[in-house]
Amino acid sequence: MPTAEYAGNVVELNEEGFLVDSSEWTPEVATGLAEEAGLGPLTDKHWTVLTFCREDAAQQGQPPGLRRISKLSGVNMKELYQLFPKGPGKLAAKIAGLPKPQGCI
Amino acid sequence: MKRLLILGAGTAGTMVANKMRTRLPESWTITVVDPEEKHLYQPDLIFLPFGRVRADRMERPRRTTLGRGIEWIQEAVDRIDPDKRQIVLGESTLDYDLLVIATGSHIRPEETPGILGDHWYQSVFDFYTLKGALELRSALSAFEGGRVVVNVVEMPIKCPVAPLEFSFLADEYFTKREIRNDVELIYATPLDGAFTKPVASKVLGSMLGDKGIQVEAEFNAGEVDGEKNILRSYDDREIAYDLLVTVPTHMGAQVIEDSGLGDHLGFVPTHPNTLVSKTDDHIFVLGDATDLPTSKAGSVAHFEAHVLAENLVRATEGRSLLEDFDGHANCFVESGFGKAMLIDFNYDVEPLPGMYPLPVVGPMSLLKETRLNHLGKLGFRWAYWNALLPGRPIPVPNQMSMTGKRETAASAA
Ligand SMILES: Cc1cc2nc3c(=O)[nH]c(=O)nc-3n(C[C@H](O)[C@H](O)[C@H](O)COP(=O)(O)OP(=O)(O)OC[C@H]3O[C@@H](n4cnc5c(N)ncnc54)[C@H](O)[C@@H]3O)c2cc1C
């Protein structure tokens, strides 16, 4: 498994770039991952989403899906796409240090 | 008398009702509630738009699917009241001792602006309902060329391979009509590939490519502009269409939402291994109505029903529940021109190549197109009415097995 270092925090990543152990996550890791994903500096709105995702995942045992984020975080679908382009559910989970949402199959 | 009450007599509810007839003590009665006169075999909905099955062969009177001794109330449940252990049906109420929720999942085209409207069943169609599939059949037979877009609006949907199967069959259909060169086929999905799990996604993705079906991945449909024939995503990507085949947002039955028992999509939070409700010991959940991270498929309901039947017996005796359900799913994927693939997976293990149910001899090949798998798919029709619904055992293991499977680099990672 590859590892990466963000501002002195060493984390293990899987082949899709998601944290293997979500307890290794720190805000600095988020900043580093966001930069790599080409997001630019994280805004308060980004943090609202990331904080929601981490808290919800801790309660539910799995990362929230896109619809759940837009319904419960107070950030609507259109904004989510502006904040985390392309696949907001997946990208928010990645930067929040959570596993890839299953999308249920 | 005590009452086992089953809400919904579709695939899941019917199976468990029939299984319980011989398993409950004499002091128990079994009542099912379902408003619909007929039981529909949903897997044939992928064939109907291409005129490959007859609609009247897809349905049977519900009464004939329910074993003797099972009481059927032909009404819709309006509300569930877990505190009173009661359901509300119009003006009347009915008490229960144990409740099974099997009300399924249903398409909600109204969730996406523009799907419903003047163009619904003119240029925009679903095939997840009998009506939709029949309307689409007429539209397809009149179609002479242009762009057909198959769009999955959002996950989860029931039978997540069905839109892929539809696309493969469309390729075959237009080829046989000798107009394939005049038809552009596009598959637009919110997933980052053809399927949710990496190995199967690669195989299915390359099959789409081989058949000349273009994939638009990570496409989250936000609205349909029926005037201009444009499907637009939340991030303003646009796909023009002549014929839009949509698989709309799915949600649990309205009664779940009305009773405050569902998650944000109206699916019931369910214990993944015992199938008991997460909020009430007297409620069990089965089939598409659960929030479990496995496929919403008839095969899953079958594997679940095996565990559920045992747990209902244990619940009547006050014993601890069996934690045996592993998310097992087993689906045939019709790939066109008389072939199909088979995929087999569970909560932890993604679909892998190999042979099933026995190593080397199979007879079914996993993750590979064969003629025999296609016959298996057609055989499922017979097994559905004659073995699955009556609750008889079928010769495949209930829990997923690694026997006969080849681990690939991606799956071992
Ligand atoms: C196009 C398509 C292709 C498919 N292909 C396959 C396949 O190849 N293999 C496979 O395994 N699965 C397949 N499936 C999936 C399979 O049909 C479903 O997963 C299965 O039917 C789920 O069973 P269920 O009992 O949970 O829901 P359903 O069978 O949908 O039954 C739900 C029942 O609840 C009733 N109900 C709803 N609301 C109420 C209420 N308020 N009160 C009382 N009753 C109510 C309904 O009338 C219905 O009878 C396919 C589905 C589709 C749409």
Q: Main traits of this protein?
A:
heterodimer; A: 105 residues; mainly alpha; two-stranded antiparallel sheet; 2 strands; globular; B: 413 residues; alpha/beta; FAD/NAD(P)-binding domain; 3 domains; 5-stranded parallel beta sheet; 24 strands; 24% helix; disordered C terminus; binds flavin-adenine dinucleotide
Major sheet size, sense and barrel closure of chain B? 5 strands, parallel
Mean pLDDT of chain A: 90
> What's the tally of helices of chain A?
5
Derived from helix and strand composition plus strand pairing, the structural class of chain B reads alpha/beta
What is the tally of beta strands of chain B? Answer: 24
Name the CATH architecture of the largest domain in chain B: 3-Layer(bba) Sandwich
Strand runs of chain A, count: 2
What is the count of distinct domains of chain B? Answer: 3
Short overview:
The complex is a heterodimer of chains A (105) and B (413). With 105 residues, chain A is mainly alpha-helical.
Question: Can you give a write-up of this model?
Answer:
The complex is a heterodimer of chains A (105) and B (413). With 105 residues, chain A is mostly helical. Chain A has one domain. Chain A has helices spanning 27-36, 44-60, 66-72, 77-83, 88-95, and strands spanning 3-6, 9-12. Chain A is globular, with a radius of gyration of 13 Å. Chain B has 3 domains: 2-104 and 253-317, 3-Layer(bba) Sandwich (FAD/NAD(P)-binding domain); 108-250, 3-Layer(bba) Sandwich (FAD/NAD(P)-binding domain), CATH 3.50.50.60; 329-412, no CATH class. Chain B is built from 9 helices and 24 strands. In chain B, the strands form 8 sheets. Chain B has a 5-stranded parallel sheet with strand order 5-2-1-9-20, covered by helices on one side. In chain B, strands 11-18-12-13-14 form a 5-stranded parallel sheet. Chain B has a 3-stranded antiparallel sheet with strand order 6-7-8. Chain B starts with a strand and ends with a helix. The model of chain B is unreliable at 409-413 (pLDDT under 50). The chains are: A mainly alpha (105), B alpha/beta (413). At the A-B interface, helix 3 and helix 4 of A face loops of B. The complex binds flavin-adenine dinucleotide.
